[in-house]
Amino acid sequence: ENTLGAAAAQSGRYFGTAIASGRLSDSTYTSIAAREFNMVTAENEMKIDATEPQRGQFNFSAADRVYNWAVQNGKQVRGHTLAWHSQQPGWMQSLSGSALRQAMIDHINGVMAHYKGKIVQWDVVNEAFADGSSGARRDSNLQRSGNDWIEVAFRTARAADPSAKLCYNDYNVENWNWAKTQAMYNMVRDFKQRGVPIDCVGFQSHFNSGSPYDSNFRTTLQNFAALGVDVAITELDIQGAPASTYANVTNDCLAVARCLGITVWGVRDSDSWRSEQTPLLFNNNGSKKAAYTAVLDTLNGG
Ligand code: G3I
C-alpha cells in the first residue's frame, strides 16, 4: 500500500493525525491529511474551553469543522478530551469540590450527547498523574474534588455513549520503568478488577531528549493489553524524527494484537506544537521525510 492509512489497515489498524481547524483552508495540509490518514483527532477543538466556553452553553462550531472534514473525507474520529486539568475555561478553573464534580459530569454528558454514536474512542480523562518519581496523582482542582473523579468520569461517559471506546490518555507513560507508568498501570488494573468501565489506554508518545523512546515500550503495551484493555499510540512525535525510532514505535504497535493504531500529532513539522524539534513525518513544504518511508515500509511488512 502507498499511504499510511491503507498500510495500517492491512492489519486492521488505523493511522491518524491531529487536525487543527485553523489549517483546513491550507490545501497543502488538507491534501496530505486526506490522502495519508484514516483517523482524526481534533488538536484543540474538542477540549473543555472550546466546547463549553460558558457554563452550560456548548459551542461545537470549531469541533464540528474538524469532525465534518474528517467524515467527509472518509475518516474516523478520536475524541480529545473530556476531563483535564488544562485548557479549562475560566468558569471551570474557579470551581472546586462538588460544584466542580457536577460541572465535570455535565460537561461529559453535553459533549458526548452531541457526538453520540460518532466517535470511535474518547479520551475521557487526560494526564491525571504527576510527573517525576512519586507515582502520585497530579494536583489539580479535579483531583482535589476527590480521588474518585476519574472513575466518575468513566462511569458518566459509559452511560452517555455506550458505543464509544473509553480511554485514559497520558504522556511519559511509555517506559515500563517509570513511576508514572506504574501508577497508571495500577489504576487500570484496579478499574478492571472493580468493573469501572475503561476500554483503552492512550500513550501520547511525545518522545524527545528529555523523555526518550525506550525499546521497553513494547513491554508496556503488552502489559497493559494483558489487563484486558486496548492500547493506542495517540499523539506521536519524535524529536528530529529519526527513521529508525519511528520504525521501532510502529513495530511495537504491530507486535501487540490489542494496539488499535497510531496517531501522529500533526502533519508537517511546521504544524507541530514542537515545530523546532522537527518531529513529524512531513517537511514544512509537504514533502515526505525519511521517517515517513520508514513507517510506511514497516506497516507494509518491512
Ligand atoms: O487559538 C488561540 C489564538 O486565538 C490566540 O491568539 C493564541 C495566543 O496564545 O492562542 C491560541 O490558542 C493556542 C492553541 O494551542 C491553538 O493554537 C493556545 O494558546 C495554546 O496553548 C494551544 O496549545 C495546544 C496545547 O495542547 C494546549 O495545552 C497545542 O496546540 C496542542 O498541540 C497541545 O496538545 C496537547 C494535547 O492536547 C495533550 N497532550 C499534550 C499535547 C501537547 O502539548
What's the β-strand tally? 9
- Mass-distribution shape: globular
**What spatial order of strands do you see in the largest sheet?**
1-2-3-4-5-6-8-9
| Mean pLDDT score | 99
The description of the largest β-sheet is: 8 strands, parallel, barrel
Report Rg. Answer: 18 Å
User: Count the helices. How many?
Assistant: 12
**Which ligands occur here?**
ligand G3I
Euclidean distance between termini CA atoms: 12 Å
Query: What structural class do helix, strand and pairing data support?
Result: alpha/beta
Low-confidence stretches: none
Domain GH10: 1-298
Catalytic activity: Endohydrolysis of (1->4)-beta-D-xylosidic linkages in xylans
Enzyme class: hydrolase
Active site: 235 (nucleophile)
Protein model, in words:
This protein is α/β, with parallel strands linked by helices and 302 residues long. Helix content is 39%, strand content 17%. The protein has helices at 4-9, 27-36, 48-51, 61-72, 90-93, 97-114, 141-144, 149-160, 179-194, 217-225, 243-254, 290-299, and strands at residues 14-19, 39-42, 76-84, 121-126, 165-170, 200-203, 206-207, 230-238, 259-264. An eight-stranded parallel beta barrel has the order 1-2-3-4-5-6-8-9, surrounded by five helices. Helix 6 runs parallel beside helix 8 (149-160) and helix 11 (243-254) packs parallel to helix 12 (290-299). The protein is globular. The two termini are 12 Å apart. The site of ligand G3I has 9 residues, from loops.
